[in-house]
Amino acid sequence: MIMRSRSVNLLVLLCVALVACWPSLADARGKGKKPSRNIYAAIVIDADSGEVIHQDEADKVLHPASLTKIMTLLLVFEALSKKELSSRSSVTVSRYAASMSPSKVGLKPGQSMSVQDAVYSLVTKSANDISVALAEKIGGSEAQFARMMTAKAREIGMNKTRFVNASGLHDPRQQSTARDMATLGRYILKTYPQYYHVFGQKAFRYNGRLFRNHNHLMESYQGMDGIKTGYVAASGFNLVASAKRGNHRLIGVVFGGQSTSSRNSRMADLLDDGFEKVKMRRSVPKNISPTLPVETKRVDPVVPPVLTSPAASTPPPAVPEVPQFAQPIQSAAADPSSSQAFSASPLSNGTWSVQIGAYQSRLATDQALYQAMRKLPSHLARANPLVVPLRTTEATWVFRARLSGFSKDQAIEACKYLSECLPISPQAN
Fold it and tell me: Strands 41-46, 52-56: parallel, antiparallel or unpaired by DSSP?
């Protein structure tokens, strides 16, 4: 009887221990309690125009989790484009980096891997240890690298985002929004298209181990080719996704999914709806008819109505060669951002532009252009006002307001003076 009593007591203690450990085990597996409505947010934008197709709490400040690694990779690609790194550069894992909690590659302190392998380990395995190793390689310390990440976020218009680490491991101070993450995704696509492919990498083999991409929606959703998943208990299941069908590319962001499957299902529904809304839209030909509906109310003549696309008389500047990644397995994906000193020289008559908004009337468009030009300093105020009309599925007009004629640095500088602003590269014009 004594032995039986002891066995029962032992069993009870074991059950109690398992119950106590269950929350942590659930979190480690990406499961657990369903997130509440207060951590849900979503947005879908047109990747070409930046127009918002759907939004739900898009400016709510939430936790990005491993979506953080998109910005980490952005700074890696910036270093590659500046030739501060090469794809073959060695990344050594410090004791601190090796101490990160999973998901991780699991290299020991002092071991190293190439930048190329490090990039693919972030994309597929979402490796926290390698995120820190890359941060230390570029910034000297993770803390300094996080400051660089936040500065880059501000530079490209992610005004509600703050980074305190390179991995996305939970810290209540690490915050972003669905809109900011969509801005980041679009910036990558437009500024570093040569690297975007790495985000589509479905699997990566390293030292005999196969790491599969956590973004399983790429395997089932037509046209999806990136970019990154994220999960911590405080954020739920997050996803930044990009998909292309025909001539249309959309970027979607979902925060606070209740599970991997429910998050993916929600993203698929949002993208399906987005493609349905844009499939009938078409850009107006350059030689647009003067019968285009234009409100006749008088506006300040400083901003003349401009109905044509940018003139093609000035050839785009030569694009410098950038190191390319070999593709180890299956498809690929990528990442962005470059920062140089702002120029105070006169406008270069370059091919970069900035978009300040999209409006349903020409009057509102012209007024927005006028106000934007008034905010710019004198060396930028000689930009060319540009109106790019779009016809919607409802046969109505939307007018995209842009200022053109900038160099890349001037476009980035101009956006520092404008609240709603997105630099647009020559390839996107």
Answer: antiparallel
Q: According to CATH, where is 3.40.710.10 located in the chain?
A: 38-278
Instruction: Please give the structure tokens belonging to residue 326.
Output: 């070999």
Q: Which helix (H) or strand (E) holds 239?
A: strand 236-245
State which amino acid sits at residue 152. Answer: K
Q: Is residue 159 within 8 Å of 305, Cβ to Cβ?
A: no
Contact, 40 vs 57, CB < 8 A? yes
Q: Which residues are catalytic?
A: 66, 69, 126
For domain 284-311+343-428, give the CATH number: 3.30.70.1070
Strand order in the sheet with 422-424: 282-283, 384-391, 397-406, 352-359, 422-424
Q: Which CATH superfamily is domain 38-278 in?
A: DD-peptidase/beta-lactamase superfamily (3.40.710.10)
Phi-psi map region of 40: left, alpha, beta (phi>0 left; psi -120 to 50 alpha)? beta
Residue 320 confidence (pLDDT) above 50: no
Cα separation, 394 vs 165, in Å, equals 45
Question: What are the percentages of helix, strand and coil residues in the chain, rounded to 5?
Answer: 35, 20, 45
Query: Does the pLDDT at position 311 exceed 60?
Result: no
Tell me the three state secondary structure of residue 52.
strand
Closest CA to 388 of 356, 416, 420: 356
Residues with Cβ within 8 Å of residue 83, at least 6 apart in sequence: 323
All CATH 3.30.70.1070 domain ranges of the chain, comma separated, are: 284-311+343-428
Please state whether the predicted TM-score (pTM) of the whole model is above 0.85: no
